[in-house]
Specification:
By secondary structure, the chain is mostly helical. 54% of the residues lie in helices and 4% in strands.
Length: 299
């Protein structure tokens, strides 16, 4: 199993797209290395495309037999899942054998979220006089206002905007399409960007329908969006660990805290399972108590 070149790419992915620290990246690489060493012991000729769910379950059984604690096992599995997600993203493997791999149930640390004042600060920190200013304002509004994944954002097309009905068509994971409402502020910024800024770009052939473009007239990369968020956080003095996903998380969190139905949020986020959506429901105890007091017959 020759994985050294893939691990280098994985390391760059963790740093740029997952915004992980050096220590966290090293931990992920060590977790993946445990899997690599395990399979080298079994079959030195095994390739990444040969790894199956059954093989991975055997690996987890081995971790349990050597006395690894549930929390550590869950961390190792998380690292392996992230590794195969990267391999799938880069078309290195054809299938993800970790898709149905279950980890021991442990307490989950919720990701950081931004409040509305912090989100407004991010938007206000953007210099609208610069050529990319309105584009960047629209990007923040779309990530937060529509709850988009960064890949969904950069893949968004002009033909997917239905301004009259205030909806956008999003192509999510597995090429699944969904309709997501878009607010008037985001629509206004999109209109300004597309009619006043984007039209002056020398758009490259084949890129005409993509909304967000770089200065060269090509589709904006995910890394560019990550770098934008990081630079805005530094500029505004936000010390939380944030990324484009933080805005998606904030979108869902604010909806839930505002009383939105969990199923509706699931639909807008494009989650296949409502269990995934539930991680966004870190509601405070006072809210939960008020729900019980209001609806439970013994309260």
């Amino acid at each position: 199993m020759n994985t050294q070149s893939y691990l280098k790419g994985f390391s760059a992915y963790l740093k740029l797209e997952r915004s992980l620290s050096g220590n966290s990246i090293e931990a992920y690489l060590n977790d993946v290395d445990k899997l690599v060493q395990y399979y080298l012991f079994i079959d030195k000729n095994l390739s990444l495309n040969d790894v199956t769910l059954t093989d991975l379950r055997a690996f987890i059984t081995w971790l349990n037999e050597v006395g690894m604690q549930a929390n550590t096992q869950a961390r190792v599995i998380s690292g392996i899942k992230a590794f195969f997600a990267y391999l799938m993203q880069e078309n290195i493997v054809d299938d993800d054998p970790t898709a149905m791999l279950e980890a021991p149930k442990v307490s989950r640390k919720l990701p950081d979220t931004l409040n509305i004042h912090e989100i407004n600060d991010l938007i206000d920190a953007i210099d609208a006089s610069k050529p990319e200013g309105m584009r960047n304002k629209a990007i923040i509004e779309m990530l937060y206002g529509c709850g988009l994944r960064v890949t969904e954002l950069v893949e968004l097309r002009l033909s997917n905007i239905y301004a009259e009905t205030e909806f956008i068509k999003v192509v999510g994971k597995g090429n699944k399409e969904r309709l997501v409402p878009i607010g008037s502020v985001a629509l206004k910024l999109l209109d300004i960007y597309t009619t006043q800024n984007r039209v002056h770009l020398n758009i490259k052939k084949g890129q005409e329908d993509f909304i967000f473009l770089n200065r060269s007239g090509s589709r904006l990369s995910r890394i560019s969006v990550f770098n934008l968020i990081k630079s805005l956080a530094e500029k505004t003095g936000i010390h939380k660990s944030i990324s484009p996903h933080t805005l998606r998380h904030s979108f869902a969190t604010h909806l839930i805290e505002g009383g939105a139905d969990l199923r509706a949020v699931q639909e807008m986020l494009g989650h296949a399972s409502i269990t995934t959506t539930e991680i966004y429901t870190h509601l405070d105890r006072d809210y939960l108590k008020s729900v019980i007091m209001q609806f439970h017959p013994r309260s």
